[in-house]
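Open question from group meeting: does this chain pack into something compact, or does most of it stay loose? Before anyone orders reagents, we agreed to write out a predicted structure and look at it together. Recording both the input and the output here so the notebook holds the full record.
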Amino acid sequence: MERTRQKIPFVALGVFLLAWMQAASAALPLMMDGDGRPTLAPMLKEVTPAVVNISTKSHVKMQQNPLFNDPFFRRFFNLPDRPQQQEHQRQALGSGVIVDAQEGYILTNNHVVENADEITVTLHDKRHFEASVVGRDPDADLAVIQVKASDLTALPMADSDTVLVGDFVVAIGNPFGLQQTVTSGIVSALGRSGLGIEGYENFIQTDASINPGNSGGALVDLNGRLVGINTAIFGPAGGNVGIGFAIPSNMARHIMAQLIEYGEVRRGQLGILIQDVTPELADAMGIHRNSGAVIAQVMDDSAAENAGLKVGDVVTAIEGKPVHSAAQLRNAVGLLRVGEKVKLTVLRNGQERAIRVRVAQPEQLKVQAAGLAEQLSGAVLGAIEETHPLAGRVEGVEVLDVERGSPAARAGLRKGDIIVTVNRQPVKRIEDVRRAAAKGKHGILLNIRRGNGALFLVIR
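Structure tokens returned:
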């Protein structure tokens, strides 16, 4: 999966992050033009002013050959004593949706504005405005930016929980920088997760055509209400094949509220590791159901332990809404704020019971990797967060952050990577990384789990 933000010049991508969502009606619209032909034009006339074009500029330091840092090499070739750090300017395009006309708030994808030094918003009426970032949530790939402008049009949000497979939807964005483009289709599937795109996945799948530059654009129903934010497409051949993904409007609404209030999303945690209830697991545990999330581990002194949750409990509902998978429960908890109380319905020893849990502040141990090994400078390591797609499936240490241009970044480490082994030694804790890294005579060999794949990295 790859982002749908378009870079200039455009480089073909294999999979593009986009999205959409919500509900249209289950029948074609009855709107007619003067000749009696069915048309969406009246609805689009009201909606398109709320969808904007976003262009960004960023300055990236170019990676230099390590020989240029060698004083002898510089003297031998009569190079300056201090090699100049070269920078490359990058430009990119995306889309956004005005959600608050009075305050000038625009909802878009995080990857559209991430690392941007300049953000320019172009409205439907061709006006241009410089935008500032209000807040970003990389885990869900959402961001809120703001412009100071008058006479804006905001798009109302629909209740994405009412969307059904087969509902008609319309995608609006700026593919390939072609200004506004409208495509139509239906909702192909709901609740798509496990794609390895984001930490929180609950995508609406659609066959409405999505292409690079559509990221952050609107997926609307036939009533002109926002049902999703275009985020990703699956395109094995580098183009649209009718499989696009959008972030549901309800999920976007919750995250947007925190971004506006705090500038970030302050997620809490329950302190559990969960996995899907499979038919084989259900049979082994004597459970007469093939859906839900079974608790595989309860952290010591966590909110879950204090509330009485136990290993083997099967969570079947959260706040009365059925839970069909571990990813669904993870997403629901990820939208809760620290301090909130949530009611979980669990199945224990064949008996159903309700347990109230107060969401706790994450106690995430974070360590600057430079203190473990100089070669890992620029990375922040910690225990695998329970919201990570591989949580409960692999053991290792998570890369929580990577500073742009740092040795760790140049070596290929990315945020979200899970380090499974260091110098062929399995690692489960931070101290394991320190101990194994010290044994490397000629560098550090890392075995990484990234998304659904794995790779080795050598860092010298």
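Observations to bring back to the group:
Residues 184 and 333 are 32 Å apart (CA to CA).
The mean pLDDT is 80.
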